[in-house]
Amino acid sequence: MDSAEFDSFASEYDQLLRQAVSATGEGPEFFHEYKVRELSQMAGKRHLQPERILDFGSGVGNSTPYFRRYFPSAQLTSADVSARSLEVAQERFPGAAAGLQIQGNRLPAADDSFDLAFSACVFHHIDHAEHVHWLRELFRVTRPGGMLGIFEHNPLNPLTVNAVHHCPFDANAHLIRSKQLVERYRNSGWSDPKVRYHLFFPRMLSGLRALEPYLAGIPLGGQYSVTAIKPG
Ligand SMILES: C[S@@+](CC[C@H](N)C(=O)[O-])C[C@H]1O[C@@H](n2cnc3c(N)ncnc32)[C@H](O)[C@@H]1O
After folding, report:
1. What pLDDT does residue 137 have?
2. What percent of the chain has pLDDT over 70?
3. Domains of the chain
4. Partner of 84 at 20 to 30 A CA spacing, among 8, 94, 117, 194?
5. 120 within ligand 1 shell (Cβ under 6 A)
């Protein structure tokens, strides 16, 4: 992608997202929080207590307060190609995360630097031909035994596809099916990938959300996650 693409959306990102998700009855915070909460549960199931976390494609820092809530003792590093988004994140949450600007095709971090790498709604903004490259970079900077968790929009969910279609910052998005992403994880060295589907019910049916853990294998949720471990 053009590294400046999200520079132009940084100031109004949450407002545009609020419009795009309004049909669900939820605000953007609901979507930011659920991912980090699920991530903490999935890390717990894999017996991980991460101390160093990377948020790859962190944007304007929307996940930052939830990392503070669900991983209170971890050090957070926020990495993005958009310098303006990193600046806005720093203004919103001063000192809450170390910012890393990505330039070129390498993550500016040493091998094995993180226990947990996370990415929310980023890979559909990256050229599909570059997915394996960035998954390998994430593999390189994650320590052996560490975990990668990626959340993506589900192209099989018509409401998600409609929201993406109407969202200005998704104009160049190319959604990824979970099976494709899993294959790319495997081609990048990641082990034991697990897919879970999320976001089945809008706010008006929120009483049914207690059922979502039982539906996680049904490929119709609004988003999905893939988690996997770096072997060793
Ligand atoms: C839709 S936003 C999501 C931001 C954030 N993860 C969130 O959930 O609010 C996508 C972000 O991915 C970033 N991005 C796109 N390509 C990237 C790449 N190759 N490396 C890192 N970040 C990238 C963009 O600059 C943008 O901030």
Report:
1. 98
2. 99
3. 5-229 (3.40.50.150)
4. 117
5. yes
Amino acid occupying residue 187: N
Is the pLDDT score of 131 beyond 60? yes
φ, ψ of residue 86 to 5 degrees: the values are -65, -35
Ligand 1 contacts CB of residue 121 (under 6 A): yes
- Average pLDDT over every residue of 116-129: 98
Cα(186) to centroid(ligand 1), Å: 22
pTM of the predicted model, to two decimals? 0.96
How far does residue 60's CA lie from ligand 1's centre (Å)? 9
Look at residue 72 in the predicted model and tell me its pLDDT.
97
Distance CA 22, CA 217 (A): 26
Using CA positions, which residue lies closest to atom 13 of ligand 1? 57
- Atom number of ligand 1 nearest to Cα 130: 19
